[in-house]
Amino acid sequence: MRHTYECPLRWADLDLLGHVNNVVYVDYLQEARVDMLRTHRPARPAGELVDGLVVVRHEVQYLRPLTFRFRPVTIECWVTEVRAASFTMAYEIYDADPDEPSGRRVYLRATTVLTPYVFAEERPRRLTSDERATLAELLEPTEPVDRPERTPVRTSDTGHYPVAVRFSDVDVYGHVNNVKYFEYLQEARIALMARLWGDDWSTAGRAHVVVARIDVDYRVPILFRAEPYDAWTWIARVGTTSVVMESEIRDGDVVLARARVVLVFFDKATQRATAPEAALRDPLVEFSRTC
């Protein structure tokens, strides 16, 4: 069984291209996930799958740009795996479209690994039998997908970005919300590109870059504090029309989160991927050789 959620859009969700920003999609997934778990929550009060969860990993694949309109977009979500102390959810964000072979115009597909968490003791816990029974009703098992290996970490000042946590970033348990990590990673990427291409690279229209995929592993909770954390971003690969960036958010030597992001150069006129000019590609290649 799959759960369907009708997600409203907001004007503030858009980026400079008029598309829903890549970070906002993760907020949509969170809204759909909470709606599913509240709708199908176990009958017993002991089942705390709504408020007592932490995200372990997100894998997000962006397929088409979504633009603003006043009607909601449909999100379908379901469970693909249930383990002793975690479960995996899948999502599809789409509009019904009879002109598409599948009958759907799909904007995004994603998976999330979640674990029940005892916040008072700052530790994960096992799923209860009632919770497992509830999740089993939404279960559609899938084959596991191989993950690409990460490149070795090499830090440099060029790829450094201080992550300042705002009080509004944290949830009621004092942890930074999982969606905010995507914002931190986005800010770190933009800072790196500004150093490589100049501060006016976006406003001057020199390059349009869209996110094709983001995978994020959550290792240790980020907490609110006055001192910034450190984000390090480096380039793993430069392709013909794309670039792969990897990032870590750290507190000293402690890795709090890791991410891999695929960016695609985008022609706004044709709405298709395009090869960047040499003035943009060459700095990426040069920086990748130091990573």
UniProtKB/TrEMBL annotation:
<keyword id="KW-0378">Hydrolase</keyword>
<dbReference type="Pfam" id="PF13279">
    <property type="entry name" value="4HBT_2"/>
</dbReference>
<dbReference type="InterPro" id="IPR050563">
    <property type="entry name" value="4-hydroxybenzoyl-CoA_TE"/>
</dbReference>
<protein>
    <submittedName>
        <fullName>Acyl-CoA thioester hydrolase</fullName>
    </submittedName>
</protein>
<dbReference type="GO" id="GO:0047617">
    <property type="term" value="F:fatty acyl-CoA hydrolase activity"/>
</dbReference>
<dbReference type="InterPro" id="IPR029069">
    <property type="entry name" value="HotDog_dom_sf"/>
</dbReference>
